[in-house]
C-alpha cells in the first residue's frame, strides 16, 4: 500500500488503488502524498490518486512511526526545490538516518539532520548520479532511491549496492514500479541497478489500476494462530507474491504444521509441531510469529538473522526474549542466531508490547495455547500495521477483554 502511494505520486496522471489499506502506516503514506502535491478521492475500497509529480503544498511531512515511509519518501521529497522538513514519532525519532547525510549531498541535495536522527531538513532538487550505497542496514533506503531516480527520469546512471539485505523487498518495489508504468532499472544480481538512456516516464493518460495484495506480514500471525488453535482458513494471500514474508509457508512446513492449500485459501489445523531451523535474514519481520510458532514446537528451533532486529519499533530480539520469558519460554541469543527452547508450554502472564505492533501480535498468538490468561499492555500498538487484528481473533473464537490499552486473552 505504501509503495503504491509513492508510485501513484510520481506517476503523472490518475491512479486507481483498489483494496487500499487503513493501518496507521497506510494513513501516514496517504497524508504524505497529499502534502507532496497529490489529490485524493477516497471511495472506500478504491482510492483515486491524481498527480502531476512532486509539487509540495506543505513545508513539512509527518511519517508517523513508519520506517518505510521515512526512507522511501525522503528522496522523493528531495526531488523538489522547496525546503521541506521530514519528521516522525515514537521509535522513529531514535532510528539512525545517517544514510541521508551521506548520500543525498552527493545528489545535489542540501541536508540537515540532528546528528543522524530526525527531523530531516532538506532542499533539492535531487539530481541522479552514479553512486555506491551500503544496503546492510535496510533495503528501504534503496527503495526510496530507485523510485526517486525513476521520477527524475534518470538516464545513463547506476546505483551500486553493497551487502544488500532483504532482497525480496526490492523485488516488491520493482514490481510495483513496473505495474505503475514507471522507469524500472536493470537489476544486475542486486549489486547494480542501471537506469538506461532513452527511457522516459509515461505522460498522463489512462488511469493505472493497482490492487493492493493481502499482507503476508500480518497474515503470518493468523497462519501461526491457525496451526496452534485452529482450524482456520485464511484467504487473500497470494503464494506467488513478491512479498518476502510469504516465507512463513516454508517455516510452517519445516515445523510439520498442519497446513493445506487450494483455490479456496490456506487451511490450517493443530498438529504436533517439531523444532525447525530457519533463516529470516531476508524477512526479519517474521521473527515474532516464528517465535510464537517455535514456542510450541518440540525441541530447539534456530532462527538466523538477529542482526536485522536492532532498529525496529523495539530491539525485537531482546524484546522477544524478555516478554516470552515472562510466559516461561527460554530464548538464547548468540550473535546472529536465536535459539528457542519449545514444546514445554507457556504460562499465563502480564507482558508488554514495548509499543511494537508485531510484539503485541506475537504475544496474542502465543496466548491462544497458554495455560492461563495473558495480559498484553499497550496492545493498541497493532494499529500501526493491522488495526483489525484483535477483531479478527475474536471472529475466530478467541476470548478477549480489552480495558483501555491492555488486552486480556
The CATH architecture category of the largest domain equals Alpha-beta prism
Count of separate structural domains: 2
Biggest β-sheet strands, sense, barrel? 5 strands, mixed
For CATH, the homologous superfamily of the largest domain is named as Enolpyruvate transferase domain
Task: Give the helix/strand class.
Answer: alpha/beta
Helix fraction, binned, reads: 25-40%
Task: Compute the CA-based radius of gyration.
Answer: 21 Å
- Average residue-wise pLDDT: 94
What percent of residues are in strands? 15-25%
Q: How many DSSP H or I helices?
A: 12
Task: Extract low-pLDDT stretches.
Answer: none
User: CATH first level of the largest domain: which class?
Assistant: Alpha Beta
Protein model, in words:
With 409 residues, the chain is α/β, with parallel strands linked by helices. The protein has two domains: 2-199, UDP-n-acetylglucosamine1-carboxyvinyl-transferase, Chain (Alpha-beta prism); 216-408, Alpha-beta prism (UDP-n-acetylglucosamine1-carboxyvinyl-transferase, Chain), CATH 3.65.10. It is built from twelve helices and 23 strands. The protein has helices at residues 2-10, 24-35, 67-77, 98-103, 139-151, 167-179, 216-229, 248-254, 287-295, 316-326, 357-367, 389-395, and strands at residues 13-18, 39-42, 46-51, 60-62, 83-87, 110-112, 120-123, 131-134, 157-162, 186-188, 192-195, 208-211, 232-234, 258-262, 265-269, 273-274, 277-279, 297-304, 330-334, 337-342, 350-352, 375-377, 407-408. Strands 16, 17, 18, 19 and 20 form a five-stranded mixed beta sheet that branches. A four-stranded mixed beta sheet has the order 2-3-1-12, with helices on one face. Strands 4-5-7-6 form a four-stranded mixed beta sheet. Strand 14 (258-262) and strand 15 form a beta hairpin.
